[in-house]
Specification:
Elements: H1 5-18, E1 24-25, H2 28-51, H3 63-69, H4 86-92, H5 95-105, E2 110-121, E3 152-157, H6 161-164, E4 168-170, H7 175-183, H8 192-198, E5 204-206, E6 212-217, E7 222-224, E8 234-243, H9 249-254, E9 256-257, H10 264-274
Antiparallel strand pairs: 1-6, 2-8, 2-9, 3-6, 3-8, 4-5, 4-7
Amino acid sequence: MINNINQSEILCNQVKERGYSDFFILDNEAENSLEIFIKEFNLIKEKEWKLNSSLSNNINPEITDLWIKAGKPYFSRNCMKYLPNQMVWDVFNNKTFFNMASSYFGVDEIWASCTVNFRPKSTLFPWQFVGWHSDRHSWPEHRTIGNEYDFLVVWISMDETDLYGGGLSVIPTDRADGRRLISEKDNQYCTPNDIDNIEKNSEIKLEPKKGECFLFSSYTYHKSISIKRAQPAVWTFDFRFEAEPFVCDRTRKLGVPLYKNISFKEWSKQYLDNVHNFI
């Protein structure tokens, strides 16, 4: 359980030195916020899976049809489908995460990104496996901010990834090496040769238990660990923090400036006023 700033600094130093942190369990406040969110989220998930139990007999559907059956818009990775949300807001505003982000970036001007991923992982889904890549290069707008731009990812397991798969493999990489690789590439995906250039055969598998979390950098190369079951899907939840002065335009328009202490109502209005520009 993370309950003091020194522990946050240790985890953030691990991210700076190798690209990812040890597993940790949230403090009581963060855990309670997430439990409330997961409880409601799982009720929707369970309903959707029961309604679509025929998925197991439908092995070759069009990907778009399967995506809809998997729960769109409820479970879409497109953040525009489920934000703003009070419970997500509560998780964003937990002091544990703020302390971690502040420690990592060395400033208090922290933003919660609008990129919030609820990921259903099942052998039924063709997209459940993603190869080696770095999140730093995921969107074209990131390439114009400058080499110092970075964001901190919080990755939370909502199911037992150690038993059923769905976790992440990472290549231990400090930020200097991550930045070097990004500057040499035209897109976010890398080849086996790129991985060998960092450190041959250095893949680390991260498979947290339900409720465990870890941090990693936007520069960290990672890939999916193949899922081991079809139903019910294994779910994970991740979101990001950015810091001044390197904040992307999408986050400035749709994210949460945590250091300004704005209310959920104020953020909701700002979000809804700007979201049409990003859909």
